[in-house]
């Protein structure tokens, strides 16, 4: 019998997570093309971001400057190193490498930028964890192909992977193919994940005409692209570890009514497990086939697709976890908000200022639920509290609420490890303040490092260490033992 583990294993990868489009800036520098994120206006938690097919001078586009990591990466990586990061999750902006997505040759200046970033990480022994596509497909692919609705994107993505795998094969070991690939199981994922132009008013959080058939077809193309990338990556470097990334939505039945229980399972299956069943096991699960049949969804597949999926199973499973929701078979219940998908309020939980319910124990449950199904290493690659921070007169930022949130989640991760879950990494979301994906705000901050910039884009961009910066440093130094 294996002996009982008492806490975070030696070599546990502590760190933080970001995405190119939300923090790099330099949107038109170094030969970069326009990405989907570059045509998104700012919004708030009550007004949606909008997609503007052409840039409008009267609009504000928060991702254009991000937090200027493009020019300040040395300063930022130094701060991550000071906290003791073992791993740093970042994404490569596809449009920096292939400005239009379908270009014949890659953009050398873009490749060089990431050479420099990886070199800087290496200097501090920080392991990069690279997301290949994080809500930032070249916008030309949306305009000219309607994004992932078109199977030709599989080849463009393959070419992109071939270039970055070869270029960074000696400096990057951990890769994730698509960020929150399961967002395409919800209308929100249409543009963000699928790079598909939604019909209607262009509002990101209020897709007027949902096209489920198109979303699932696009998702199939991403499954094929991901599987081909995994196979290719292993051929280029057999030591590569390539994972999937899912927005895990922990779902409770609101009551013990058996109908609520079945609804919760259906949501867990369709929103969470459909994608990872395909990416981890290499085949569509029965519940998905049934759903497609009952909803008249007809996925066009090519003859070889089953084989491609089987040959491209991922090495590990990663997910984002922020909150949980309830479902009920009865209508008219209080709704809650959340990451990618929403649900109903849970009377036992408190919520963030953006109404995302806070549920650390749900993380322990989710870790067990996922691990029991797949038995492969897991990483929590996004977790954190989006909150408003205040700078005191003496320049300090006392973000005890953030410390509290993270502490309780770390405690539950430790419990899950003791339960037997093979959890190998934890990267908190937005370890340095960055632009919110959902709302475009700067005010919704997740970081240990404060960035002086507001919702209108004003500010010096100076970096300030919050109280949580020193706290997380201690957590890492003690491998998760000292959490107070
Ligand atoms: C995840 C995304 O959905 O949640 C990130 O992978 C995003 O890109 C994060 O930033 C938090 O969401 P938001 O809307 O608060 O930025």
Plain-language structure description:
- The mean pLDDT is 96.
- The protein has one domain (13-477): TIM Barrel (Alpha-Beta Barrel).
- The protein is globular.
- The protein has 484 residues and is of the alpha/beta class.
- Helix 6 (152-167) packs parallel to helix 8, helix 8 (212-236) crosses helix 11 (305-311) and helix 12 runs parallel beside helix 13 (400-419).
- It contains 14 helices and 14 strands.
- The site of 6-O-phosphono-beta-D-glucopyranose has 17 residues, from loops.
What is this entry, summarized?
The protein has 484 residues and is α/β, with parallel strands linked by helices.
State the CATH architecture: Alpha-Beta Barrel
Instruction: Quickly name the level 1 CATH class.
Output: Alpha Beta
The coarse overall form would be globular
**Could you say how many structural domains there are in total?**
1
**Mind telling me the C-alpha Rg?**
21 Å
Number of strands: 14
Q: Would you list the SSEs in sequence order as H and E?
A: EHHEHHEHHEHHEEHHHEEEEHEHEEEH
CATH topology: the name is TIM Barrel
Number of helices: 14
Mean pLDDT: 96
Can you say what the CATH homologous superfamily is? Answer: Glycosidases
Helix content bin: 25-40%
Q: What bound compounds does this protein have? A: 6-O-phosphono-beta-D-glucopyranose
Structural class: alpha/beta
- Unreliably modeled segments: none
Oligomeric state of the chains?
Answer: single chain
The strand order across the widest sheet is 1-2-3-4-5-7-11-12
């Amino acid at each position: 019998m294996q002996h009982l583990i008492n806490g975070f294993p030696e070599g546990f990868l502590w760190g933080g997570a970001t995405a190119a489009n939300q923090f790099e800036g330099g949107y038109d520098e170094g030969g970069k093309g326009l990405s989907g994120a570059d045509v998104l206006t700012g919004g708030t938690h009550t007004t949606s971001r909008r997609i503007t097919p052409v840039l409008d001078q009267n609009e504000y586009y928060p991702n254009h400057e991000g937090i200027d990591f493009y020019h300040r990466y040395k300063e930022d990586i130094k701060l991550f190193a000071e906290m003791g990061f073992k791993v740093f999750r970042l994404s490569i902006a596809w449009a920096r490498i292939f400005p239009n997505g379908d270009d014949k040759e890659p953009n050398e200046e873009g490749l060089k930028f990431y050479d420099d970033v990886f070199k800087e990480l290496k200097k501090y022994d920080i392991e990069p964890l690279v997301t290949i596509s994080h809500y930032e497909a070249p916008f030309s692919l949306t305009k000219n192909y309607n994004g992932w609705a078109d199977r030709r994107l599989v080849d463009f993505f393959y070419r992109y992977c071939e270039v970055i795998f070869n270029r960074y094969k000696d400096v990057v070991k951990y890769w994730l193919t698509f960020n929150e690939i399961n967002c395409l199981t919800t209308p929100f994922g249409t543009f963000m994940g699928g790079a598909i132009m939604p019909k209607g008013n262009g509002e990101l959080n209020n897709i007027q005409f949902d096209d489920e058939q198109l979303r699932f077809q696009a998702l199939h193309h991403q499954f094929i692209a991901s599987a081909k990338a995994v196979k290719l990556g292993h051929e280029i470097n057999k030591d590569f570890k390539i994972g999937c990334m899912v927005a895990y939505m922990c779902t409770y039945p609101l009551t013990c009514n058996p109908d609520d229980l079945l609804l919760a399972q259906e949501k867990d299956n369709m929103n969470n497990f459909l994608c990872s069943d395909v990416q981890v096991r290499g085949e569509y699960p029965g519940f998905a086939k049934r759903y497609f049949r009952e909803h008249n969804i007809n996925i066009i597949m090519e003859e070889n697709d089953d084989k491609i999926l089987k040959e491209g199973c991922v090495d590990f499973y990663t997910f984002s976890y922020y909150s949980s929701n309830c479902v009920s078979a009865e209508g008219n219940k209080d709704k809650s908000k959340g990451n990618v998908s929403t649900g109903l309020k849970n009377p036992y939980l408190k919520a963030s200022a953006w109404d995302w319910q806070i549920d650390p124990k749900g993380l322990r449950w989710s870790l067990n639920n996922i691990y029991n199904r797949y038995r492969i290493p897991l990483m929590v690659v996004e977790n954190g509290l989006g909150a408003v921070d205040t700078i005191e007169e003496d320049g300090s930022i006392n973000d005890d609420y953030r410390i509290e949130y993270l502490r309780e989640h770390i405690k539950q991760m430790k419990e899950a490890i003791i339960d037997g879950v093979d959890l190998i990494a934890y990267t908190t979301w937005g370890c340095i303040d960055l632009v919110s994906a959902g709302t475009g705000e700067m005010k919704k901050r997740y970081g240990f490092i404060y960035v002086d910039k507001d919702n209108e884009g004003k500010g010096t961009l100076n970096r300030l260490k919050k109280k949580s910066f020193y706290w997380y440093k201690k957590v890492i130094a003690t491998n998760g033992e000292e959490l107070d």
